[in-house]
């Protein structure tokens, strides 16, 4: 597990109310009074021809619902930027190139542990499943990973999954190497790595092609990842109460997509090139949260943070309640 020390440097459902009743009106008044920058810079994970993420956020941007809500506060343009992984997006947020971004919980937590001045304002999904795919003719069980090489995206929720899995199963001498998904898939097909971590829809495609599924996070509920939207503290100074405005706009987008499921799955199909039926299977609308945080989601978040701290993968511990902005 000493090999995991590179992880730190690589960084990259009971409902909780979105705001306190007494503070809600004050936040709304404050938001209406300020004049935020006219351009909002938003980052997300994954690239596609349409340049939209999935989920309520992506649907909201695609349909213009979020833009219309933000215009009420003087934000006339939203610039969307795609990133290949969470650590890269975190770097852009820290440097000020982004104001807000949605990414996996692990890179967001790792960035905060280094002192990144961010606040978590939404946990949009709490069922991010990591998959462990083997090469053809290679390992077929977790124990078979002893002495083997696994391609991972360092700093991602999938890295947290495989790190936790190897520790949990006490498998020694596993070598992790950083590769983005397309590179990992190519390396696996050539037999240059013994296994790789992958996310749902891409993992299912590999399984259909005959690659063995060694394991997935559904068998280990404590290793399931979540999605987080974080905003820089600098931006919150420019737009006090932004978290309330954002979550109300996101909720409006969620209600719209929930009323148009067929159209939503077709939208996902345009993003990733897979059929609407497969998207319905791996990204059901039921996994999208209609509140900004849930008790179960925060519990998963706390568990991930504690794991990163205990394994000395996070630079330092921090109070999760001081990071979450409800």
From TrEMBL:
InterPro entries: SsuA/THI5. Residues 77-263 form the SsuA/THI5-like domain. It holds the Pfam family NMT1. PANTHER family: ALIPHATIC SULFONATES-BINDING PROTEIN-RELATED. This is Transporter substrate-binding domain-containing protein.
């Amino acid at each position: 597990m000493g090999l995991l020390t590179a992880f730190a440097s690589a960084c990259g459902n009971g409902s909780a109310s979105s705001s306190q009743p007494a503070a809600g009106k004050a936040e709304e008044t404050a938001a209406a009074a300020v004049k935020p920058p006219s351009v909002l810079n938003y980052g997300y994970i994954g690239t596609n021809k349409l340049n939209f993420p999935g989920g309520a956020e992506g649907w909201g941007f695609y349909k213009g619902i979020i833009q219309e809500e933000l215009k009420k506060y003087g934000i006339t343009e939203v610039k969307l930027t795609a990133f290949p992984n969470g650590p890269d997006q975190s770097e852009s947020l820290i440097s000020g190139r982004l104001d807000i971004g949605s990414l996996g919980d692990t890179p967001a937590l790792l960035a905060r542990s280094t002192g990144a001045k961010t606040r978590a304002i939404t946990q949009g999904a709490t069922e991010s499943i990591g998959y462990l795919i083997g090469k053809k003719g290679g390992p077929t069980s977790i124990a078979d990973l002893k002495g083997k090489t696994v391609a991972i995206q360092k700093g991602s929720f999938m890295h947290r999954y495989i790190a936790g899995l190897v520790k949990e199963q006490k498998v020694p001498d596993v070598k992790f190497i950083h590769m983005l998904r397309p590179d990992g898939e190519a390396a696996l097909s050539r037999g240059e790595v013994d296994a790789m971590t992958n996310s749902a829809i891409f993992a299912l495609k590999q399984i259909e092609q005959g690659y063995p599924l060694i394991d997935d996070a559904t068998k280990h509920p404590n290793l399931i990842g979540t999605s987080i939207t974080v905003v820089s503290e600098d931006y919150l100074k420019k737009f006090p109460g932004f978290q309330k405005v954002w979550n109300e706009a996101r909720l409006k987008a969620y209600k719209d997509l929930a009323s148009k499921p067929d159209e939503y799955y077709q939208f996902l199909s345009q993003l990733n090139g897979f059929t609407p039926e497969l998207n319905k299977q791996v990204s059901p609308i039921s996994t999208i949260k209609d509140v900004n945080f849930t008790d179960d989601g925060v519990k998963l978040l706390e568990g991930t943070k504690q794991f990163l701290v205990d394994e000395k993968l996070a630079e330092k511990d921090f109070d999760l309640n001081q990071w979450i902005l409800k």
